[in-house]
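Quick one, T. Sequence first:
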Amino acid sequence: DAPARYTSGLMTLPLRTATRYVTPLREGGSMPAVVEADDEGLYVLKFRGAGQGPKALVAEVIAGGLARALQLPMPDLALMDLDAELARTEGDPEIQDLIKASAGLNLAMDYLPGAVNFDPVAEQPDAELASRIVWFDAFISNVDRTARNTNLLMWHRRLYLIDHGAALYFHHGWDGDVSGADKAFPLIRDHVLLRGASRLAEIDGGMAALLTEVTIAGIVADVPDAWLQGPDGFGDPETQRAAYVRYLVRRVAQRDAFVQAMGLSFTVSTLALAVGLAGNASFSGAALGWSLRMLA
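Structure tokens:
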């Protein structure tokens, strides 16, 4: 079992121990790494001591749990204990400093060997999956699933969601007020899958039904105490967890604002595509008709 100082008693995520630093992944600003753990598995490790701080890991745990509850595909998560002694075997001073600053509990996800970045030009998920992912990202206020940075992987011909540290951005400097849960999420207009999300109205009820208060509370219980202690905390860890639960439960109940904003953004995006096709003689009338039918 996880040490009590790390998590609440309701923890469901497995606890692993990093045994070997394998290689850095320098694509992200937080410089995650591939590590080997005590179960001999390979994981992508997100460091608590990275520039985004523990709040990014809080967002990863909550968003990952919500994605699982919503039956969306993503790598399995685990909590991972990191010993500062691992820094001694690394020659790069930047990596040494990062490991030392992250001693203790961090977040890991299964490493998917051979996975490739999703290409929105070459691939497109079906309308239902696209709609469910767009709904999910609007719910968690995820600013980081755009054409420029999709945070989607293809592995064995299946789409996987990754990297949710930028979600739940309201919690930076948060005092526990949950009134912001009622707000729309206008940045959904930049979502990489928005143009294919033609079933938002159909999937809304089913998505919301999966996020009961009990389910949300169980997800938030996985956030370790250690990540909720610091200068930006507004109470003890239990107080903060309770505020996350209230916020998310209220966002489900008051979801009309972000659902309507998604619908509007989808309409505008599809009309823009139709206008673009109409002005481009290289596209057929059939393609233009398809774009307009998406609005039906």
